[in-house]
Amino acid sequence: MSASKMTRRINAVLSVLLGLLCIAYVYPIFLILINSLKTERAITTATVFQLPTAETFVKFQNYITGITSMNFLQSFWYSLFISVSSVFLILLCCSMCAWFITRVKGKLSSAMYYLCVFSMVVPFQMVMFTLAKTADTLKLNNPYNICIIYLGFGAGLAVFMFTGFMKSMPVEIEEAAMIDGCNPLQIFFKVVCPILKPTMISTAILEVMWVWNDYLLPTLVLDIKSYRTIPMAIQYFRGSYGKVEMGPMMACIMLTVLPVVALYLVCQKYIIEGVVAGAVKG
Length: 282
Known about the structure:
The protein is an all-alpha fold. The chain has a single domain, classed as MetI-like fold. It has 13 helices and no strands. It has helices at residues 3-35, 40-43, 61-69, 72-103, 107-119, 128-137, 147-166, 171-179, 184-195, 197-213, 216-221, 230-235, 246-279.
């Protein structure tokens, strides 16, 4: 068998395997979607895996019930604000930190880099109780200050990716800007940031997916009665008489998944580009 035929067969097998893997990942989302359009009885019986019929189809009633009964819009605002503020802070501070690490050679910069990388392997369970106490003491236990905590936990991956990319950037570009009269801040925002765009976007998507879907950290830090992000609201969702209504819950889960999926589909080409650029020379 020639090498070209062997390559085609291997590619065909890989395509089939990856297609099956893609179906396995998409199927749970599809299952949530079809059940969000069914009656409560249809979801809790054997018809949970079947498409909606004329008897079980309730149109968008579950979505209306979920939004109105669980105060979905307020939870959506908290999740949106926390995600945007946290990711903005991570991108700004970590890109500056990576720029310092790559351009200022010394023991301090090396120590900062290895501390950030080491933080990626520290299990969250080791620090969560101390974190909850510290957040209460420093008044970080609200949606408007929790971004500082997310900055600490998200810095490891962001600094790693930004540092790897900046090591491949030619210093001559920054030196030319300095000769033209730019100060360090102007060099960073006018020269470095535009070059960092692919890594910025890929890091932002990864961090948004993490912060948006995070349940444990907000539950430990925030007041459950006053502030509930979308994952917290879904966890504590109750219908009439304290009963968990699966239809509205499925609808709210679908509304939670869609923004991140849409963002990922729009920006997916930057993810691979940014990850490869930030890992090759790390």
